[in-house]
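Recall that a protein's primary structure is simply its ordered list of amino acids. Everything else, from secondary elements to tertiary packing, is in principle encoded there. The following example makes that idea concrete.
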Amino acid sequence: MIKINNISHKYEEEFALENVNINIKKGEFVCLVGESGSGKSTLLSIVSTLLTPTSGDLYFDNKNYKEIKDIDIFRQKNIGFIFQFHYLINYLTVKENIQIAKEDSSDYEITKLLTMLNIENLKDKYPNEISGGQRQRVAIARALINNPKVIFADEPTGNLDSKNSSNVFEIFRNLSQNGVTIVVATHDLKLAHSADKIYEVKDGRVQ
């Protein structure tokens, strides 16, 4: 589904990534692991189309990223994003925060997602009224509302305790078993072992 061919990226004159090659299949749960500064977040940004590499090619379903004419529409139709900081809007309810990603989403669609994530009773709550683990689940629901083919997550458990972190990775595991491709950048090797495949990023190269 996703193919990375000889991707390299420079910040000024320094390589953040060098000659990276990765293949990710549909429905695969993949973790990119590495220490801070290893290049894993740069790699995730490139794979998720948020950053254009200095050289190399990125393919989605055999189509070169460079041939995609409207990248915003492509992202909206195909990609969901989850970050370390949930970026929920405090003056909007859980339901309203999810609707930002899909304005015409129905009450049924949102309730179905929240039920799957075991937070259906929070629909009318505000972000400051719920826990950190619950807020991250809302962020996952927001990423899923457009039925994306791929979820990209950058350190999604960075602000969570071990129990909530395990819960989030279990959600990713279940999503991948239902055909959603999951790509996560994390420093937590223990959590990463729940993935189908682990790529270690070290000094800009993939092990």
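Residues 162-177 form the longest helix (16 residues). The mean pLDDT is 90.
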